[in-house]
Amino acid sequence: MVQRFETIIGGRTLSLETGRMAEEADGAVLVRYGDTMIPATAVAADEPREGVDFFPLTVDYEERLYAAGKIPGAFHRREGRPSEQAILTCRLADRPLRPLFPKGFRNDVQVVITALSADQENEPDILTIIGASAALTISDIPFNGPVGAVRVGHIDGQLVLNPLASQMTQSKLDLKVAGTADAIMMVEAGANQVSEELMLEALKLAHQEIQGIVRLQESMAAQVGKPKRQFTVYEPRPEARVAGRQYLGDKLALAINQGDKAERERLLAELKAGLIAALSDRYAEQDLLTVFDEEVKALVRSKILSTGLRPDGRDPVTIRPISCEVGLLPRTHGSGLFTRGQTQVLTIATLGSVADEQELDGLGLIESKRYLHHYNMPPFSTGEARPLRGPGRREIGHGALAERALLPVLPEEDVFPYTIRLVSEALSSNGSTSMASVCGSTLALMDAGVPIKAPVAGIAMGLIIGGDGAYTVLTDIQGIEDALGDMDFKVAGTADGITALQMDIKVKGVTPEIMDKALAQAKEARLFILQKMLAAIDKARPELSPYAPRITRIKINPEKIGTVIGPGGKMIRSIQEETKAEVEIEDDGTVIISAVDGAAAEKAVAMIRALTEEVEVGKIYLGKVKRLMDFGAFVEVLPGKEGLVHISQLADYRVARVEDAVKVGDEIMVMVTEIDTQGRINLSRKAVLEGTGPEQARVERRPAGRVERAMAIPHERRGLGERRPGPPRRPFTPSREPEPPREPPKHPFGRKW
C-alpha cells in the first residue's frame, strides 16, 4: 500500500512516499521536492563480514541524465562512470549517516539513490541525505537516526532556506547542513568571504529547520517502519583486555609521545608485534589487536583532555612550523610549495584558453567551468607501497573542497580570460593535506600572475569529547589526532571571511557552542598562516610566465562574424595558420585570441580588426595602391575596402601624371576625407603630408573630368557650386494606343511553347 508523508520546508512541499517502488529492498522511499524526485533504497547483509575492523557502508548515487531530459554526450550515449558531481553527492550522503550506525556493526550495508526527475531548480543533493535516512529509518537495519538536511543561502542580506538553483547565482553562501534532532552531523559550505558570525547564524537556522524533517521521518517510522534486527557486536574477551593492558603498561605512552610520525609508527608497530608474540598463545590475535587499538585511542584522548598536551608535545592551539616557496618549476606557469610540519603539498598552476574549459554533462544548469582543481595523493606520501590507481572518492572530494575555497577570489573572465587548472600533489601527509592544498594553490596562483582578489589559507580543526561532556578543540590536527578524534573541521578563507567549510564527525553530533569555539580558533590560525604565505610572495606577479599563453579579448560587430570565419572556415584557418594563435568566436561578437607569443596574438588581433573595422572619416591608414587611373589611384585601406586618391591629392605639389607619384603595389599613408551616400571612399595623401584635416582636403579637390562625372560624384564635391535648373522636360505621350497582348502560339498537341 502506498503511503505518503508531507511537510513544508522553505515554502515548498517535501514528500516522502513508500510502498510504490523497490519492495524487495529492506527500506525504500521516494522523495519529491518540487519536480525533483529520487528513490533511495537500503539493504543490509544478513551476516557480518568476516575479518574486518570497520563498518562496511557503501552509498551510491546514480545520476540519470534522462531525469533532466538529456541524452549523455559520451560515444555510447549512456551513463558510464560516476561524474565528479555524482561522487561528491555520494560523499555528502555518506558522511552524516556513517556515525549513526551502532558501534561494532559489521554487516555490509548499501544505500543506492537514483535521480529519476530533476527540475534543475531543486537540487537533488540535499534530498539524497533525506531519502537515505528515511530508507534506513523505516528498514530493519540498526540505525540511530533519523537525519534531516537543508541548504541555506544568503541573498540580498537575508538568510534563505533551500533557495532555488536560479537564486543561488546571487547568493554569498551555499551552506549544506545535516543533523539529528539533537545536534549537527555534517557541514559543507562555499562562501564569498562571509563572517564567522553569519556562518554560525546560518548553522543555527539550518538545525532549527532540520527538526521538522526529523519529525516527519519519525512519524513515518512509527506507521510503516519495521522492527530493527538483532545483531552480534564483537567484543574481545575480558581476560585478553586485562592481559593486554598489563603488557603495554608505560611502553605505550613512550611510543605515542613522538614528534616524528615515522618514528611513532615504527615504535607502535614494534610494540604491537611484541604484544602478539607474547600473548597470542593464550588469546586470539584479533582480541589482542582490538585491545591494542583501544588502548592507543584511550591514551591519546585522555592525555589531551587532562593535560592539554598532544602526541607531538603541542598545546591545543599551536600550529606546526610552516614554510612557503614559489617558482620552483621553471617551465610551469606557476608553482607553490607549502609545508606545515610533516604535511607538504606542491601545487602547480596552468593557464589555458577558453577552449580548455571543462564541459559538464550533468543534471545541473551549469554546462562548463573555467576553473579546475585536482588533488593527487600518491602512496609514498604516507610511506606506503601500493599500486597507483586513478583518483578515488577521497581525492575528488579534497580537490573539490580546495576548488570551492579559491573560487570567490578568482578574477572574472572579462578581466582575466583564462581557463585555470590547479593540481595539488601531496608529497607528505601527516594531517590535512586538503587545507595545505588551499595554501599551496594561493601561492601557485600568485606565482603565475593570476590577479586574485585576496590570498586564501586553510586550517583543519579537531575535537576530543570526554565521557563527562568536557571537550577540547584542537588547531592544526595531525594524522593520529584525525584518526582518534571526534571531528575533522576544515575552514578556509581570506583575512576578511570564510570561503569554504567542511565538517566530518564520528560522534552523534556537535553543539553550536563547540562550532562557535572551533570557528574562532580557526580564524586566528588562518590569519597566522596568511602572514607566513605573504612573507613568501605578497601579491600576484605583474607578468605571466613566458611559457603561458597570451590571451586577448576583443569585441566585433556580430554581423561581421561570418567575415572573420570566411566560407567554410577558410579565413579563420588562415589567420590561425599564419599567426600560430588560437581564435575563438562567441555569438555576441566576443573574439578570444590565444597565443604563447605575444607578437603572434597582436598580429592575429590586427588581422581580425582589419576584417571587421569600418572606415572612419578623418582617420589615417597605411594603404596599398591597387589600380591607377588618369584621374587618381585606388588604394586599399582595409581588406576589401578601396578608396580613390584624386590626382590633386596625391602629393603636396602639382602632379602631372598619376604614374609620377605612385605605382601599383606602393604602400602610402592616406586620410579618409569623405564617404559619400553611396558608400564610396575619398582619400587624400596630401592631407597627411601637410597635416591638414579632411575638410580642407575636400575644398582643395580639382574640378571633375569626364571619367569622374561618369562615376556620378555630386557637383558640390567638385567645386562646381549648385546645379542650375534646366528647362522643364515635356511629359511623354504615346503616339497611339498600346496594342493588346498577343496570345502565344499553340502547340499542335495542345501544350504551350
The count of β-strands is: 29
> Percent of residues in beta strands?
25-35%
Low-confidence stretches: 702-724, 747-753
Identify the strand order in the major beta sheet: 8-7-9-10-21-20-18-19
Rg from alpha-carbon coordinates: 38 Å
Largest sheet: 8 strands, antiparallel
What would the principal axes of the Cα set say about the shape? elongated
Count of alpha and pi helical runs: 18
- What quaternary form is this? single chain
Backbone structural class: alpha+beta
- Mean pLDDT across the residues is 89
Instruction: Tell me the helix content.
Output: 25-40%
First-to-last CA distance: 81 Å
Q: What brief labels describe this structure?
A:
753 residues; disordered C terminus; 18 helices; 27% strand; alpha+beta; eight-stranded antiparallel sheet; six-stranded mixed sheet; 29 strands
In short:
The chain has 18 helices and 29 strands. Helix 3 crosses helix 11 and helix 6 crosses helix 7.
What would your notes on this structure say?
It contains 18 helices and 29 strands. The protein has 753 residues and is of the alpha+beta class. It has an eight-stranded antiparallel β-sheet with strand order 8-7-9-10-21-20-18-19, with helices on both faces. Strands 1-2-3-4-6-5 form a six-stranded mixed β-sheet. It has a five-stranded mixed β-sheet with strand order 11-12-13-17-16. Helix 1 (84-97) packs across helix 2, helix 4 (238-248) crosses helix 7 and helix 6 crosses helix 7 (285-307). It starts with a strand and ends in a 43-residue tail after the last helix. The model is unreliable at 702-724 and 747-753 (pLDDT under 50).
